[in-house]
Design brief:
The structure is a homodimer. By secondary structure, chain A is mainly α. Chain A is built from 16 helices and no strands. The longest helix of chain A is centred in the first third of the chain and has 44 residues, at about 10-50.
């Protein structure tokens, strides 16, 4: 028993330290709440402003990130918890896309998607490499990285623009979705090749094909497995007395397939897409006549998942804006301008070429080509990898950031305008 | 231009390092997905098992945490992102409670709530202190901490049990909710006093009253401010063309009031409760005749927020289970047993006393008293503070953990059983 007066100093010091720790933990929660709040609000406000100016809402969300991030105000860093929530956001968005995808149509438009993806992959790679190597006299590795960055397609931005315009389920929308998925797969293979090349100096075709075989297997088996799990969820939904089964079990399913995708070497968001495909109303197993799709179950999933998807997806697009640090660009350097503008032209032409050879109406071909142009977060990952590994100098990196920003900002406007002016020529056009 | 063969070693080393960084970032995302998935699934599975054994589902979720955490499997640590998501979970749960609260009834039962809260605060504090100081001959500060820990009421667990039994909107449910909120406020004041006492050795009554005035002001003004903001949301919902306004804006509102609560020194979850109160169907401003409540708006909020609430709240209860490290207890020490069991009795009796003096039916009095017993996460915060500041020895801390575990585990069962056996005697009893 120690009366009040002779409380030793150590005790009070350590309890003060402990309280500081506790306060710091509380401050962490506190700051996180404030940041999340600012992100959600800013995303909404900028989306509403974008809408007033006839721009797609995703543009507003990207701008919110640019304004809040290091480019302008510097309030929020693109790190930590927010980044993880953004990842959930993009995976849930791809889940929603999968949910709205008609598998039969996806297979029917598969060849067109493949043409667009392959053309939009090979042509920008060659043009970007050539521009760097011969045009600007850069090293082999740097030129390969420039080419690699130009192959990227931001599946998130592309798909979001289509959804905002309600065109993701029509023919050209499905070609674009399919092509964006294929492009992401090709991107993973390229990243694996560039990695091998930059550390070993050579390329092992066997390894590359192994990655491809893994991915192909995943894409055939994942929707079937997800479908079987969804039957389990449906079964338990009928017998459980505890509310809230669909939100937790469907989010778990999506997280599981994202995790599984990563395990086989694919981008996590493709796991979300596979899970969405399996739960869509129009998904049929090749031999599974017994697994009839229940439209009311699909509707319940859609209505209960949409608030969660609405909550998380804007975080992702704000995050892309936050990651785009325009302060790093030295705007007075003439090299930056010639380099980035010529690269920008190459970035556009490269993605358009594949689409122009399609057997579609001209408007559709141009829309499809333009939809593949945004590099967004995928391009940023490539460029960032080049920078941190010191393959790209700061100046070249800044040029790449400009190109990524331009390719991300201009297509949403162009697509919206094209649909407005020429959309009535398309067969699926809804009045 | 540097051909392949003479690629310098530094380049490949730094690119390898960069790739390791990138891989680590990806692993972080990857692990987070896996942990979140395990938490969501385990919470559900254990809740279903609990339901089979006639136990409330929150018990299952707590057990899931105990099994996954350091007590048993040690798969998941109660830290980082999961902790922040759990915080969102408990705030959203309190928001839901606020949403279902009838303000008029809350005011009408206010005196009873105050009696229960004050009794359940003062009595356990005195008994706990006396047991430590005179019963076990512990120091003044240690005894104060023991008393302080026993004052806690886990508003989350109490309220969740009532919701699981659909009794949170009836008379005794409202008394309990009101008392739990008041207890949380008193707990903050006590923590502030203990803090001052442990660092300065004295108590400043002026500071304590300042905290109380702040909290009272917050509780009067916050729901009114939240109500005005909700009118804004309703207005924008009518004019916006962009889907998903309710999820993002309501979550933002809740986060804002949680942040504001923290700014005035109140627990964040009370901010969520205030926001919920303001948006409830039965909230009326004292002078705001013009602000008519729109039942369909309240319904839209409920239907769109419930999947989000269902998703986040189990994370919180799993987190409480994760934080309860039963490995720290030396089960063979006789002191542990006498100390924790006598403290457990004091913890039960202390909370029952206040309720027994209420002017209610006997069943209601006992249910109200028992509902205040769970110490849960609030008790853990107190005990943890005592441990890290080295005021509590490991042995005493372990004893406290046992008491907290027992008080958290037994009331849900007791309440469920009491409602089953004697619930028909209560006026609000629904067949």
């Amino acid at each position: 028993m120690r009366p009040l007066g002779i409380l030793p100093i150590e005790d009070s010091e350590s309890s003060q330290r402990a309280l500081i720790n506790l306060v710091e933990a509380a401050v962490e929660v506190h700051t996180f709440f404030l940041h999340l709040l600012i992100i959600l609000l800013a995303a909404r406000i900028f989306a509403e402003i974008a809408e007033r100016f006839q721009a797609p809402r995703v543009m507003g969300e990207l701008c919110a990130g640019v304004v809040l991030g290091p480019s302008l105000l510097g309030w929020i860093e693109p790190t930590g918890v927010i980044k993880l929530l953004a990842e959930i956001g993009i995976i849930l968005l791809l889940f929603e896309v999968g949910l709205g995808t008609d598998v039969k149509r996806l297979v029917r438009t598969g060849l067109s998607s493949f043409l667009v993806a392959a053309g939009g992959f090979v042509v920008p790679f060659i043009l970007g490499f050539a521009l760097g190597y011969w045009g600007f006299g850069l090293s082999l590795l740097v030129s390969l990285f420039i080419g690699g960055t130009l192959t990227a397609t931001s599946i998130g931005i592309t798909v979001r623009v289509l959804m905002d315009l309600k065109r993701h389920q029509v023919r050209e929308g499905q070609i674009i979705v399919g092509a964006a998925v294929l492009d992401d797969i090709l991107g993973v293979v390229l990243l694996a090749l560039l990695y091998e090349f930059s550390i070993g100096g050579g390329i092992n075709v066997l390894n590359a094909s192994k990655v491809l075989v893994f991915l192909a297997t995943f894409f055939v088996l994942a929707p079937i497995a997800a479908k079987l799990i969804s039957q389990l969820i449906k079964h338990f939904e009928q017998i459980t007395t505890i509310a809230g089964l669909i939100p937790t079990s469907v989010v778990s399913l999506v997280l599981f397939f994202a995790w599984l995708a990563h395990e086989v070497g694919a981008p996590e968001l493709l796991g979300g897409f596979a899970a969405g495909l399996a739960l869509s109303r129009r998904f049929f197993l090749p031999f599974g006549v017994a697994l009839h799709n229940d439209p009311t179950f699909a509707e319940r999933i859609e209505s209960q998942m949409s608030p969660i998807i609405f909550l998380f997806t804007p975080i992702f697009f704000v995050m892309v804006g936050l990651s785009l640090n325009l302060q790093e660009v030295n705007w007075s350097s003439p090299f930056i301008w010639t380099f980035s503008l010529s690269l920008f032209l190459v970035a556009i032409v490269g993605k358009l070429v594949g689409a122009l050879f399609l057997n579609e109406q001209w408007v559709a071909r141009i829309i499809i080509g333009i939809a593949m142009i945004p590099r967004g977060e995928v391009g940023l990952i490539f460029a960032e990898l080049g920078r941190v590994s010191e393959i790209l100098t700061n100046e070249i990196y800044a040029g790449m950031v400009i190109v990524i920003a331009l390719t991300t900002i201009f297509p949403p406007f162009a697509i919206k305008w094209l649909y407005g002016a020429y959309g009535h020529q398309l067969p699926d056009h809804a009045k």
